[in-house]
Amino acid sequence: MTTMPPLEPAQAVLRPHAEDSFARELDALAKGDDRPRPPRWNLSPWAVTTYLLGGAAADGTEITTKYIGPRRLIEVAVATLATDRALLLLGVPGTAKSWVSEHLAAAISGDSTLLVQGTAGTAEETMRYGWNYAQLLAHGPSRDALVPSPLMTAMSAGKVARIEELTRIPADVQDTLITILSEKTLPIPELGDEVQAVKGFTVIATANDRDRGVNDLSSALRRRFNTVVLPLPASTEDEVRIVAQRVRALGRALELPDVPAAAEEIRRVVTVFRELRSGVTEDGRTKVKSPTGTLSPAEAISVITGGVSLAAYFGDGTLRPHDVAGGILGAVVKDPSTDPVVWREYLETVVKPREGWTAFYEACRELEA
């Protein structure tokens, strides 16, 4: 009986951190990077931008593209982080805000793990610090009893802290950031002490304004951020590239079998999502109603990845319309009272008469039967 060799640590992890997945690229960029670097940055701003947008390192190592979009947006984001301003990445769901945030932190600090995940239940201790209550009861307030937050750790080490979904955090908890971002210090009143930010410390936050339960940022807090709005992909070609690239990466990470002929279905899913998002067909001739969902590239990636899994394990190994139809239906129909009507009308007026889409139409109609 043969046994499989043990997996390397990076292979065994379902989702490696960016600094682990792209360690070779980061190392190649660092070795050939002779441009000025801000304090405690692993790479120069120019090299950070190359890491995000793709190119080549000095030794010829290919740097894969992490973000497909306007170069100037990434340059503005990187330039902001090189100053004393925090960065707010704003956009609708699925515009790669978290993805860009993670890769910026990996390139600048070599550590993308100093993360606060914003939710409606995020407490002030998550942003500031907590206490080890066993130590606290045994010895009273002390540095040993203090449990630093990711923000406090980043301040002490001069690294990038990340805050995901900032507008999901209650407003009174959000405002704990004001002192940190303006004074670059975190008071510890219980100890009569404080933590001062070391050079290199900065914050990248993400937020979207289409999420239910959004807590608007106060004007005082918003002024502490430089805001960069990440748009949805400008063209169908860009969106197809984004989806195809991420699907390939996810397929490798999940060790899904290779599924050929996926390009046609990727383009079909992207076309459907873009038309329903914009309210008009690609040729501009037919207006369509838009559903309540965002139909973002992230959802397209999920639909295609699910379709690849179906094709590999329950199909003939080729991605076909019936492999993606169920995923599209789930992505489009979020509100059961209105979205089914929107979807059915789109199928009948746009999909049914479209040349080459008969199999897709039939697969979608079969699910409604």
Q: What are the salient characteristics of this protein?
A:
369 residues, alpha/beta, 2 domains, 18 helices, globular, disordered N terminus
Kindly summarize this structure in a few lines.
By secondary structure, the protein is an alpha/beta fold.
In terms of topology, how is this protein built?
Elements: H1 9-12, H2 18-21, H3 23-31, H4 45-53, E1 55-56, E2 62-63, H5 71-81, E3 86-90, H6 97-109, E4 115-117, H7 124-127, E5 129-131, H8 133-139, E6 146-148, H9 150-157, E7 160-164, H10 171-174, H11 177-183, E8 185-188, E9 193-196, E10 202-207, H12 219-222, E11 225-229, H13 236-254, H14 263-278, H15 297-314, H16 321-332, H17 339-351, H18 358-368
Helix pairs in contact: 4-5, 4-6, 13-14, 13-15, 14-15, 15-16, 16-18
Task: Give a structural overview.
This protein has 369 residues and is α/β, with parallel strands linked by helices. It folds into two domains: 71-229, 3-Layer(aba) Sandwich (Rossmann fold), CATH 3.40.50.300; 236-368. Helix content is 47%, strand content 11%. It is built from 18 helices and eleven strands. It starts with 8 loop residues before the first helix and ends with a helix.
**Cα separation of the termini:** 48 Å
Ranges where pLDDT stays below 50 over 5 or more residues in a row are 1-8
CATH topology of the largest domain: Rossmann fold
The outline comes out as globular
Helix content: 40-55%
The value of Rg in angstroms is 23 Å
The CATH superfamily of the largest domain is identified as: P-loop containing nucleotide triphosphate hydrolases
Order of helices and strands: HHHHEEHEHEHEHEHEHHEEEHEHHHHHH
Overall number of domains: 2
Number of E strands:
11
Number of helices: 18
